Amino acid sequence: QVQLVESGGGLVQAGGSLRLSCAASGSADSLNVMGWYRQVPGKQRELVAVITSGGTTTYADSVKGRFTISRDNAKNTVYLQTNSLKPEDTAVYYCYVRRTISVYWGQGTQVTVSS
User: Fold this and answer.
1) 37-76 pLDDT tens trace
2) What percent of the residues of the chain are helix, what percent strand, and what percent coil, each to the nearest 5?
3) Got the DSSP string for the chain?
4) H/E element, 42
5) CA 75 to CA 28: how far, in whole Å?
6) 89 and 113 Cβ atoms separated by less than 8 Å
7) Closest to 20 in 3D by CA, of 97, 98, 85, 109
8) 3-29 confidence digits (pLDDT tens)
9) What single-letter DSSP state applies at residue 53?
10) Which residues pair with 49 in a beta bridge?
């Protein structure tokens, strides 16, 4: 079993930045994919960015050039640096981990961007 603890969300003005963190514990070896999804009320949860154990990254088109995902395998932690934030980035951001055949989700951290 894997437990995920997210931090770093908050309220920021348009154009600002936040750094989100997600630390994995428990059976935290062989975390093949780590990343972030986001969701707003009434909409489907959508992929923001993911990174493999080998460092390969994938980003949603809407965040390319503004967000950067990274991971520290020694700390079992994934980060999302969000720059040039826009009001449409407002959402609950969920940490995502895939370990072999299992998928795990964090409880979410709120990001609110004011105009």
Assistant:
1) 999 999 999 999 999 999 999 999 999 999 999 999 999 9
2) 5, 60, 35
3) -EEEEEE--EEEETT--EEEEEEEEES-S---EEEEEEE-TTS--EEEEEEETT--EEE-GGGTTTEEEEEETTTTEEEEEE-S--GGG-EEEEEEEEETTEEEE---EEEEEE-
4) none
5) 10
6) yes
7) 109
8) 999 999 999 999 999 999 999 999 888
9) T
10) 36, 59
Long-range CB contacts (within 8 A, 24+) of 59-66: 62/88, 63/89
* DSSP-based three-state secondary structure for 62: helix
- For 44, the enclosing helix (H) or strand (E) is none
List the structure tokens of 76.
């079992």
**Cβ atoms of 104 and 97 closer than 8 Å:** yes
Task: Give the pLDDT score at 75.
Answer: 93
Give residue 71's identity as a one-letter amino acid code: R
Tokens of 74: 């020694």
Report the DSSP beta bridge partners of residue 24: 4
Of 36, 38, 30, 37, which is closest to residue 2 (Cα–Cα)? 30
